[in-house]
Structures are given as C-alpha cells and as structure tokens.
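Q: I'm writing up a methods section and want to include an example of the input and output format. Could you take the sequence below and give the corresponding predicted structure tokens, formatted cleanly so I can copy it straight into the document?
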Amino acid sequence: MIVVTGCRRSGTSLWMQMLAAADLPIVGQKFSEELEVLAEANPKGFYESVHRYGVQGDPADLAGCVLKMFVPGVIEADEEDLERVILTLRPWREHVVSAAAFEKLESAALGTDVPQAMPADLEWWFENYCLLSDFSDRDYPMMVVAYDLLLEKPRETAERALVYLDADPAKADVMAAAVDPALRRADPARATSELPPEVLETFDALYARVRGREAFDDAFVDRLGETHETLMPLIAPYLEGEDDWIEAELDEDLEAGDEA
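A: Here is the clean output for your methods example:
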C-alpha cells in the first residue's frame, strides 16, 4: 500500500486530491458521511477510509493502492506492507492555528465541544518525531515533504512524488492543478505556545531541515532526542496507556526528504 501520512491538518487530504487527479488507485471517499459537515475545512475532499487509523482486514487487498493513514496506523503497520510512504510536515505554528480552526468548525458542526487528545504543539512534535524514529528503525521507503514546498512548487513536488512512486511523471501538471494556495488560511502569527523557547527553536530547526532536504547529522539527532526527553513528561498524560508505539528514538542519520 502507498500511504499518505502526517499530523492532521498537514496536507494529507491535499496529497490524496493530487494523487486522485493523477488517476492513481485511491482508497477512500471524497467525503464520508461524518466528514461532509466539515467540508469547509477541505472543500475538495478528505479522501479518508476505514484504514485511516490502521489497516482493517487483509493488507494484501491494499497492495498498490493509495490511502490516507495517520501516524499511529503507520507505526503499527507491518513494514512489508508499506510499499511507499509520503510524510508531509507543516510548520508547527500553522499546525497549531489550523488545528484550532478545525476544532472550532467541528464543534459548531456537531453542536458540542469535541475533546482533543493533546495540545496541538505537543501533537505536532510527538507524531512527527515518532514517525521519523520508526522510519529510522525500520527503514521502509519514505518521502518527506515540507508543506511550504507542496504549495509553492506543486509541479516540482508532484513530479518528485511520481518518480518516487514509479508512476507517470507526465501527470505532474494535472496534480499541480489540484493545488490551490488560496486554501492556505492558517496565519502563523496567531499561534501561541507555552513551551520553552529552546524547544520551539528545535521545532523550527526540524522543519528547516525538512524544507532544505538537509541531512540529520549526529549532533542534530542528539538535539532532537534531548528535546523529546524534555517533552515526554508533558506528553505522557495524554497517551492513556497507549505506549506500544511511543518508545521513539532516532538512532541513525536521516536525509530529510530523501526517498529511501
């Protein structure tokens, strides 16, 4: 299976829209019944399926298919089933603002407050760090993409993805046409966080490495590990005992954005 992943509000729906435009075999509905009321958040469709939190049924039935799966599901999947993974990172400030807007929209649509599992800044760190750690441990094929570049250079990013997926690069134009930069509505200046400045500097440094497709050298990996240790006491109370996939540790150099 070809998995599009990342934190919520990180561009996973946009990737699904682009890959659907390129006529790749998509698993998932443009709008499921429960997400139709939230169309304002993704007017071109979510393309989610029953597999969004993990494989349901026989993974062999998903061979060669593109589907959206959030980070816990990827970490729990057997690596032999992960034919290709595309991970998109959004700047943490945009994630915080976009997540808050989505939660407000969701609450209004459902007519009730919707409890969230973790503050958005911690969520951004935890899910991205855990997935990168899982990749460094299991070494399945993964393409890492900066959200900025997906919007700023859609054709170049689409062509890179098609080559990575062994698909027709000529489909890059139709994929790029699916990208509407006007839908980028999260103002990073509105983001707030109570985390220490040095932690937020590491958040920014992680994103900068991904955007620049720079190597994660030993010193930077150590810095990320130290940041994770600092944040885990804040994160742990939100995990509710789900500790089977959270022993994350980056244990080897990574080339941010390179296709393994």
